[in-house]
Prior knowledge:
Layout: H1 3-10, E1 14-17, E2 41-47, H2 50-53, E3 60-65, H3 68-80, E4 89-94, E5 108-110, E6 119-126, H4 133-143, E7 148-151, H5 153-158, H6 160-168, E8 172-175, H7 195-213, E9 220-221, H8 230-238, E10 243-245, E11 249-250, H9 259-268, E12 275-279, H10 286-299, E13 303-305, H11 307-311
Helix pairs in contact: 4-10, 7-8, 9-10
This protein binds zinc ion.
Amino acid sequence: MSAQRRVAALTLVLAGALVVGCGSYVPPEASPTPRETPPPTAYIGAITTSAAAAGSPGSVTVAVDSTPQAVEAREQARAASPSMPDPPIVTQSAPSPIVPRVVGSRARVVDRVQTTEMRVALTFDAGADRGYAESILDTLLTAHVRASFGMTGQWAEANPDLLRRMAAEGHHFINHTQTHDSFTGFSTGRGPKSAEARVRELDLTEAAVQRIANATTKPYFRPPYGDMDGSVSADVYGSGYDIVAMWTVDSLGWNGLSRGGIEERCLRLASPGAIYIFHVGAAAQDGPALPAVIDGLRRQGYEMGPLDWLLGP
Ligand SMILES: [Zn+2]
């Protein structure tokens, strides 16, 4: 891969804010036409790269639907499964400058990779029960596919056998915090965590993964509920996490989508450089849907792997 292509592959999709007025997460590729008058939103900050800080276009703005219906929907989903429902973050692709991988003093938010290569990343968040984790690992092993696992420290400590198996089978880890509490407080209503508390969440998780599986989560961070702002980006960067791992395609398994629905959605929304998010917990049918998703993506010509592989060296 030439240097130019490598840089191109690392280019982010940098986005402007787009807010949708319904209670459920609507992914960028399925966003409806924006309303003429946007509903009230909680603006949770602009995340900028150094290029943006230097005055060029390309700041990333993350907006979350804060209508009462949206908040209620999130609360219900969370009550059903505390770690499942990650966030209603809606981004919109926009022309972006070439941005080097490690820049500035804030972590980079990655929600897809710009590439023409037929590659996608599979990521699985683990923060609730063991769920389908074992079956997912069996599926990945049989299909010879490696993946990323967004891991809470609590899940790692509760399932050391699975953590060791993930490491032994070549999977990749993302730090999903110790307790899956929101760093900004947006989704939990508890107010933002202090910088010290955020660092402790990251360090506890990293220590658990190191101790149990002799592996690291650095430099990949996945925020609980997708709650992000500039201070989170700065705090995690300071702890060694320069990639905030968002996603392109949410299977919506956590939201009750059927096995067939997950398969259809994941295959319909496939595109080069896409990052998929699934969950291992029993509340989602992602595990049962996975064999058909992998087969379907292969039939479309896609190669699958973990996020670090998709991002490249
Ligand atoms: Zn999560």
